[in-house]
Fold each of these.
Amino acid sequence: MDRTQLSLNTITVRSLPIDRVIELAESHGLGGIAPWRHQLADAGVEHVAKLARAAGLRVSSLCRGGMFTAPDAGGRAVAVQENRRAIDEAAALGADCLVLVCGPVVGKDVPGSWQMVADGIAAVADEAAAAGVRLAIEPLHPMMAADRSVVSRSEKAIDLHEDTGPGVGVIVDAYHVWWDVTLADAIRRAGSRIAGVHVSDWVSPLTGGLLAGRGMIGDGTIDLTGLVSRCRSAGYSGLVEVEILSDRWWAADPELTLTTLIDRFERCI
Amino acid sequence: MDRTQLSLNTITVRSLPIDRVIELAESHGLGGIAPWRHQLADAGVEHVAKLARAAGLRVSSLCRGGMFTAPDAGGRAVAVQENRRAIDEAAALGADCLVLVCGPVVGKDVPGSWQMVADGIAAVADEAAAAGVRLAIEPLHPMMAADRSVVSRSEKAIDLHEDTGPGVGVIVDAYHVWWDVTLADAIRRAGSRIAGVHVSDWVSPLTGGLLAGRGMIGDGTIDLTGLVSRCRSAGYSGLVEVEILSDRWWAADPELTLTTLIDRFERCI
């Protein structure tokens, strides 16, 4: 797939300041970037928005909102407030969506935690729509259910979308959902609700722990070509985000990481 | 839950020889054990069967058959042969079931690998039935899809069961399936097809890697009480197996591991 279809999630080269990431993305002819909120806090939202626009880069997503689950109502209200700030930032950036990492299981209660997520999204959905920001539920890998997201299956995320309104989409992140035998059906069913497609690979044995063990495109067991092509067939026409959280690639020269992932993106997807 | 309902999966105290495990299980008043095939290879199947019978212990399962996936037909045929041997051993032990760890994703093809599993089970189902051995598909955690089992969701394992005949059951292992928001429905639907219930806990952060990071009952985020009680309501009346693969507990005195898990079993489930 052509590099103009590639959006670089900035965590992939996290040692670089955001200004430099934008410079590199432009000079390599990429289609866009996907920054994280802590980078906006450091560099200033307006500054980043202006740089990206000047470089002709789309902002495929902002990472991240969500984290709606909490043991008590006070904690959940704080989360909703934080999501309001994230929505404002996504609007200022003109981001294609705000990624929602929905929040971990609390109180050993999986269905109850899903309900908290549904309530949290419902609490901010109108404001997001008014701000022109598309919320995008990202199902994470089930191994992250205790720490990051109770939402871990695409088809159930689509159900959640249906509960929370038409403005909300879903992210198909290959690393999180590749193992699911019903994935192709879920992608078909998601159709135009696919708000983003993220790629990296699954390498085993997993090193770097659950969070930072992702593999370079093409190094692992995921049929990335099939996954991206199914998302395209289902109607997704946006950029494909490369998001590699990896101790191995973080230790490498970030420009090597970047040229490697561009090469793999063009050859393997 | 009373300890007479507890079956000790021998991997939990893997430093002990099987004779000693049987002795301890009897002296602590447990209901049964679940050995692994390599222990039978060392000690002799008939010897283990005789000791367990003499101690009044059920054999809740034999670990393990399966591993049906392979890139080529030759590899798959070898797997079928190996399952025939496992069936003979399970029959000699009078085990309640033979656990099937179905085999990893091969060729980046998740649905194709499921089909290999279905074919493999179909190839041995009649022989298992003739030998009086119940085959039990164990969905593993999705994080093990690349290494151990493409079968990773209870509800899909039940579909697989339906494809492979009425003699085949499913294992509900809390560690592997706790995160699934549809689990309660899957358990209800599984009903009398539940061939075994395994317990351990999910602790985070995960230490000991994907394989040996399980937690002691009660130390983690799984609603074990709810899970076991739902399996009972669905009709499962067999023993509840404690299977804790844990670097931490393997490093402890195995008799401490045993008394701890019995105490937790009686207090937390």
Amino acid sequence: MTERINHQWRLAARPVGTFKPSDFTWVEQPVPELQDGEVLVRNQYLSLDPTNRAWASFDTYLPAVEINEVMRGGGIGVVEESRNDKFPVGTHVQGMFGWQEYVVLKSKEVQVLPVNPAIPITAYFGLFGHIGLTAYYGLLDIGLPKAGETLVVSTAAGAVGSLVGQIGKIVGCRVVGLTGSDEKCEWITKTLGFDAAINYKTEKVAKALKTHCPNGIDIYFDNVGGEILDTVLGQINLKARIVLCGLISQYNATEPVPGPYNFVQLLMKRARIEGFIVLDYLNRTDEAMAKLGAWFLEGKIKYRVDVVEGLEQAPLAVNRLFDGSNQGKLIVKVSE
Amino acid sequence: MTERINHQWRLAARPVGTFKPSDFTWVEQPVPELQDGEVLVRNQYLSLDPTNRAWASFDTYLPAVEINEVMRGGGIGVVEESRNDKFPVGTHVQGMFGWQEYVVLKSKEVQVLPVNPAIPITAYFGLFGHIGLTAYYGLLDIGLPKAGETLVVSTAAGAVGSLVGQIGKIVGCRVVGLTGSDEKCEWITKTLGFDAAINYKTEKVAKALKTHCPNGIDIYFDNVGGEILDTVLGQINLKARIVLCGLISQYNATEPVPGPYNFVQLLMKRARIEGFIVLDYLNRTDEAMAKLGAWFLEGKIKYRVDVVEGLEQAPLAVNRLFDGSNQGKLIVKVSE
């Protein structure tokens, strides 16, 4: 058998502000030999997520990636060699592969992907997996939406936000999305069925929220934090629920970031802010995947992916999550 | 019948920073004649609370006190004249009497006080009423304490905080209180049974919390906001609950106040901050009062009151809530 060569992006430095190419090193090395029970997976698609930026800098819900370690990231791939009868060559799998072409996994690190011809493989990034779990449980378990309530979603054309809004519509909420371009506004209203969209780069957010949320805001699903969270806090209803799913606006910060100035509204409105991380729901994956799959096949939920070609592109592509230039779930195609 | 003279403190100006004498006007006027169904109440004790400062400045859960209106405040008193058979002369009552010696109340504004010789009248301020309700439901319904968890309480020697800590002990928590003098630290540990006390004026709060909360912080009952909230956020456990019951540190602020810099910890620790205001629990008064009364008679709960003599003192006395010089629930004795 010819020796396989693995390419990897390793973290070279703690990033300051957005990622720079010098924060990573491109490493080439032979794929190690398998031990009994292990499989060799060829990475096909790599998921890029805002949390990559946090992982590279500080301990979060996972320890920070170490300097010189392969950059952490989730992937989908296929078993190329196997010394484990449970996972024969050709099995489709997902897991934390890292930013590399090949990964050797032990038995307990392998998660087999169900194969359904009606569901494209990219759905495992854009609809299922951590994206779908995040939207499903973040909205339903933490946001506790009721029919007739008003739901506001930030990064509404993003992978999580676009699902949150669609699930909100299924539940019977009025759904208003915030996003950063007219094209995205059109996509979430015309294609996804949001009731209204606000382009936060060109519109006055406070005024637009007043217009589109005439009965106030009951639930805010937030991926951003910062000024928009502050503006929303100024318009929440009594007993509002704010799902804090991400704080994109501050992952690149180089100075301490204050919390919202309208913090006092939590008290005045007896409202709740609650942090949510999908890792706490991994043992409830089945329920969410079954529902999301059914809604997808019924045409009630749509998703889109933004595919970048080639692992070499990952360090620059990941910054598109922070300037808003991605259109849908951002993934890197690593191999066929 | 001789004409009765009523003295009142009316709000003269929106306060800037702490209250100044010039923010109020001392008004003398005859008590109006009663209409059918009304009673005349002589105010005996007036409750001073941090929320007075908020009411004087801005709309909260209640509209701001209008300029030239009698300052809002809760009181306990006795019916002196009655044109309502349900409330004969001599009935002990409580309600929103305002900062004045006499108040005319309509039937629906009268709340009769139960009279129990084993319970002193000041208990209706220090233990029952809004103080007791706030501590009871704020801790139990919003904080959701479980035996073995660690509860931290700010303004721990204050009216609400001292009850919260004692209820926390009854539930089986480790209880650590923050307060502003060594005398108060001694009172909450030696007399009230808190596990530890921190003098936030003389100790390094972050270090002291680490010492006294070796297993991290599960519940924080906060009346203060500001730096201490930030410090606590740096030491919360997964799924921590923060009960936001007050924001004393910012009621006197003259500039916008940022939220906590450790706001991101809510996300990292999947923690919750929830605002709480006792008004939402008025329909559940009976349960709380029955429990608190039983605990008091069993000696499991203590309270103390700090009595200021004379309604004239109210405008200056209320500031003691903000410099921490009160010792227990602050009340003004208006008449015998």
